Amino acid sequence: MKAEIERLVVGLPPLPAVVRYFDDFDNEMRSLRLLASTDFLSVRIDGLNQRIDLDHMGPAQQILQHVLVDWFSRLDPHTLTSYAREIRSYSRENGPCSLLCLTTASPFEARAHWNTVVLPGAKADQSWAIRAYLHALCRLSIGQWSPSASSIIRSLKSPKVDRYRVVRAGDCFLPLDQQAMIVNHIDGMCGKLAADAAALGNDELRDVCMLVMSFQYAFRPGQIARIELADVRLFSTGAVHVAVSIIKQKDASKRIRITRKIKREWGPLFNELVRRRDAGTIRPDEGVPPRLLFGLTPQGVSRAIMKLSEELTGEAWSPTDLRHTAAQRLADGGVSHAGLTEFMGQTSDRIANVYFDTSPAQAQRINEALAISPIYSNVAKIAKTRTIDKAMLLGLPPDQQIGAVPHGIAIAGIGGCGLGQSLCMKNPVLACYTCSRFMPLGEAEIHEEVLESLRPIVVEFAAASRNNQQSPAYGQLKSTLAAVRRIVEELKSNREDGALA
Predict the structure, then answer these.
(1) Res. 368: pLDDT tops 80
(2) CA 395, CA 401: separation in Å to the nearest integer?
(3) Alpha carbon of 393 to those of 113, 384, 400, 402: distances in Å?
């Protein structure tokens, strides 16, 4: 086999001295010098240098270089580096002989090798990269491969994988009360900004704006990182529009730009962010172009959002989790397939089907609103709360002892408020359970009474709104009862743990 590889290498045309590709993060064309003896290439994308190793191919190293040249002319740099990484991974795990065999074999011999060796031993991502490698061999007419063999490559099977397993399982969806925590945080930052703009730190401001783009509009880290200062349009009415590029599209003609209108109440955050960027108060990270709004790489955006979500909810939710959650909210709310496809920036409405497949039916929605259904039990994990006892509650100032009459039902003694009801802009009891300043009473029975008192109200609102998930009153009651139920479960769990101890 080695002699056959060496024969193929001798017959290869000279490598081009330079290959060029467009770096859409830095917005410039980049050049790579190629040498036959090069063991690796360094490709700069997303503000970072990505290393492509070549030495794992042994004597076929120059063949891989020709394949990379072909890929540079056809593929996005992200796809190219991903394929190169997966081919290296397969070679390291299974030895280089398999790839060398595919390189030298005839198409029909390669198909037999694929079914007996590659398919049982390769992961899905690795198999897709190897198929791209074989397609490049066909285009380059290397060895026994020619363009006519492409149909054989297309017929090769790959390991079955469910790309949306986490969506079907529901593991990526934020519980309703944790979504409320995020909304409360964004509202709180708006209030802090209105009270004293200087009190809002630069990192706080930048991170909450990125959270809005991820949580509310389902943008990927790469999209958020690529938003430019010029993409943000500020209007005298207070409206804020942000243009974002659609990425992860193989067809360059489909990489369009879409505009999203920021919620009016959250617009001041973006106004202040743009003002500070223009004034030079907030500077981009090293290596990040100054034209970019947030001044972070995609990896930096992802890390910042995960850190903030963990501080707010106790769990580090990724931008991908927030993206799936936003899509599921729309599907639950009755948006059309076309509407969800456009919202997600996809080109095929087949991808939207997975969210409709996992959307609960009408009866299930009512059960979820009643906080007695296990629909989201796989994601409704117990949150850490600060509880107080009766003595501590009675020792608080009256303004910090929560009590109200929501919808004609008197509810009191459920816990304390770290802020004070007179300073709170939201409805007591209904908003308290999803508020970070709430200190629930450490008695599960009290909160179970709240559940029983509010359930008839939810049924009335469900009937009045015809289960419209976008109804503000229905949505607030639903998220409140979900939060109450979780507090009851935690208190009971703590009681059982104490009994066992």
Answers:
(1) no
(2) 9
(3) 72, 19, 9, 9
- Rounded Cα distance between 224 and 499, Å, is 49
Closest CA to 249 of 78, 130, 126, 127: 78
- The tens digit of pLDDT for each residue in 155-191 reads 999 988 877 788 887 788 888 888 889 999 999 999 9
Q: What single-letter amino acid sits at 167?
A: V
Give per-residue pLDDT as tens, 420-447. Answer: 777 676 776 667 877 777 888 888 888 8
What is the C-alpha to C-alpha distance for residues 331 and 339, in angstroms, rounded to an integer?
Answer: 10
Show the domains of the chain with their CATH numbers: 2-154 (no CATH), 165-359 (1.10.443.10), 390-500 (no CATH)
Residue partners of 32: CB distance under 8 A and separation at least 6: 18, 19, 20, 21, 41, 42, 43, 72
| Mean per-residue pLDDT, 99-123 | 94
Task: Name which residue leads in pLDDT, 452 or 419.
Answer: 452
What does the DSSP 8-state code read for residue 218? -
Locus of tokens 């920036």 = 345
Q: Is the pTM higher than 0.85?
A: no
Q: At what angle do helices 267-279 and 202-215 cross, to 10 degrees?
A: 130
Contact criterion met (CB below 8 Å) for 274 and 285: no
Asked if 324 contacts 339 with a C-beta cutoff of 8 angstroms, the reply is no
| Distance, CA of 173 to CA of 330 (rounded, Å) | 13
